């Protein structure tokens, strides 16, 4: 058992990691709000490419150009109805500009609609960015969990990078996070 008297630096490290867990929690809240908020940006795009990735399973992808460039996975049913050159309406999340849904439109009529696959991954990432909050547990518990000792600083650094990129998007250096 490491005592605080033997290693006074541990107090500062613990304090630093606890402080850095706050931006990570803010990113998690931003991700969750991005998934839940119904206010979204709409982008009209033209399908430039579609392809199938064959690995352990078949994955269907569509590349489209509008205000932003997109390359996202879609359902097979949607993929089969889609042609290169088709117009699509993409509903984007407000902060990270991920596909919330995509609609195939021909002659003003919606032919097909599907949900963006990134929405599921965003939820998982939101939960993962809450991991650094575990550093508010007792120090003995954290020290006994080697995986947490690795994951917590990792997610804290990633959250700082996401915040930095978000700032770069706000000053228009990048078009989306």
Structural write-up:
The protein has helices at 9-36, 76-81, 118-128, 139-144, 146-170; strands spanning 41-54, 58-65, 69-74, 87-92, 99-106, 109-115. With 177 residues, it is α+β, with helices and mostly antiparallel strands. A 6-stranded antiparallel β-sheet has the order 3-2-1-4-5-6. A hairpin with a 6-residue loop joins strand 4 and strand 5 (99-106). The longest helix is centred in the first third of the chain and has 28 residues, at 9-36. The relative contact order is 0.17. The mean pLDDT is 85.
Unreliable residue runs: none
Shape: elongated
Estimated structural class: alpha+beta
Question: And the CATH topology of the largest domain?
Answer: OB fold (Dihydrolipoamide Acetyltransferase, E2P)
Biggest sheet statistics: 6 strands, antiparallel
Total helices: the number is 5
CATH architecture of the largest domain: Beta Barrel
**Percent range of helical residues:** 40-55%
Total domain units = 2
Reading off the top of the CATH hierarchy, the class of the largest domain is best stated as: Mainly Beta
Residues in β-strands, percent: 25-35%
> What separation lies between the terminal Cα atoms?
43 Å
SS elements, strand count: 6
Q: Give the helices and strands as they follow along the chain.
A: HEEEHEEEHHH
Radius of gyration over all CA atoms, rounded = 21 Å
Q: Order of strands across the widest beta sheet? A: 3-2-1-4-5-6
């Amino acid at each position: 058992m490491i005592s605080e008297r033997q290693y006074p630096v541990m107090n500062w490290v613990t304090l630093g990691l606890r402080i850095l867990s706050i931006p990570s929690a803010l990113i998690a809240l931003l991700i969750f709000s991005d998934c839940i908020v119904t206010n979204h940006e709409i982008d009209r795009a033209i399908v430039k490419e579609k392809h199938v990735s064959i690995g352990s399973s078949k994955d269907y992808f569509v590349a489209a150009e509008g205000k932003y460039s997109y390359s996202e996975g879609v359902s097979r049913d949607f993929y089969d109805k889609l042609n290169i050159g088709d117009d699509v309406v993409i509903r984007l999340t407000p902060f990270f500009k991920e596909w919330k849904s995509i609609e195939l439109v021909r002659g003003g009529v919606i032919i097909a609609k599907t949900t963006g696959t990134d929405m599921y991954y965003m939820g998982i990432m939101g939960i993962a960015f809450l991991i650094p909050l575990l550093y508010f547990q007792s120090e003995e518990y954290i020290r006994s969990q080697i995986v947490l000792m690795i994951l917590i600083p990792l997610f804290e650094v990633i959250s700082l990078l996401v915040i930095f990129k978000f700032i770069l998007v706000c000053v228009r250096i990048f078009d989306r996070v």
